Amino acid sequence: MAVKALHAISQGRNGVGAFILQCKRIDLHYCDWAGSSRGMNGFIKSLLPKFAAAHPEIEFTVSPRPAKHPVAIGHYINGRSKPICVRNMEPYEILKKLELLRDASGEKLKKVTKPVRSINESVRGIWSPYHGNGMPL
Amino acid sequence: MSRTLLRSLLELRATATTTRPTTSQLLRPFLVRHLHQTPSQIDPLPQQTQPEQPPPSPNQPLAVSPIPRCGGAPRTTSPATPETLSLLPLLAHQPGKKYLQLYIQGQAYLVTPGDQIRLPFKMPGVAPGDVLRLNRATAIGSRDFTLKGQPYVDENLFECRAVVEGTEAEPMRLKIKKKQRCRRTKTVRSKHKYTVLRVSEVRIKLPGQEEEV
Description:
The structure holds two protein chains of two kinds. By secondary structure, chain A is of the alpha+beta class. Chain A has a domain at 37-75 and 85-107. Chain A has three helices and five strands, in the order E-H-H-E-E-E-H-E. Chain A has a four-stranded mixed β-sheet with strand order 2-1-3-4, with helices on one face. The longest helix of chain A is centred in the last third of the chain and has 13 residues, at 91-103. The relative contact order of chain A is 0.19. The model of chain A has no long low-confidence stretch (mean pLDDT 93). Chain B has a domain at 82-204. Helices cover 8% and strands 32% of the residues of chain B. Chain B has helices at residues 21-26, 82-92; strands at 8-10, 31-32, 99-104, 107-111, 116-118, 131-134, 137-141, 145-148, 158-169, 173-178, 185-190, 193-204. Chain B is elongated and about 70 Å long. Classes of the chains: A alpha+beta, B mainly beta. Chain A binds chain B through residues 13-17, 19, 21-22, 50-51, 54-58, 95, 99-100, 102-105, 107, 109-112, 115-120, 123-125, 131-133, and chain B through 3-5, 35-40, 96-99, 107, 109-120, 127-129, 141-144, 162-163, 165-171, 194, 196, 198, 200. Chain B: It comes from Podospora anserina (strain S / ATCC MYA-4624 / DSM 980 / FGSC 10383). Chain B: This is Large ribosomal subunit protein bL21m.
């Protein structure tokens, strides 16, 4: 028996109706010993509680990763993830990186040339030479 | 409704006589702040949606003027004439979606409800989920009719809201700089950021009845 593909009935349009933040989880990894984690350890102590409290829709997990550089990994609704190495960064630089992870959609970065993306059909229709009154010459 | 190619151009007379302080204050673009924000972004927001513009000069010409640049556009739109208001129901009662030609920071975007706009810049001070009220449009249209503004449509005639979806970036650009007869090359890297909006609501407001289309 052949496998039948399901037709997509609707496409998601985030913000039409409800808005759902695309970033669902941010993992933070640190190392107690290494110097490159100094900023990350300070960030976890000082800035992370406030940032996490301001974003109840994102799950934050903090776990040690000994003898490795510190990493912040964002996980998105579409299944992709975005890892950022934050070695030797100051706590406020790491905060900027977390804001980047929060604002991102999780899609792969693409070059976009058209500013407006629409799935609606044309409001005024497609011009046809066979309809209408025509132009008297 | 017959699908004729009749296109009614509703003239808006650019009577830049009086600005209405009460209504324009009510209908200013506003930003609905949500809770998920970092402390660095809770500064009071200026009007982000529209460029800051000087007030209109009192001796503005009545003739058709081209769309001014960022610096010279009027801060408030001129009120609609009674003729426009009498013809607006024809446009509003047409079946199907309406389109808007929005004007954001000197660039026009033809949008219908549900469209995604990728602005060519990163809008400062906005977070995902913020709602922007966009009140500058150069045209409103339906299947058969178009209302053109001179240069902008009266902001009391329509209501357009957009949700900030987030910030996107382009792939890293690499530009190799090389001079002749010199082996040295320099690679310049750049990665621009863009704010993405989703048009969530487009309504045409008729003066008599508040809820329309």
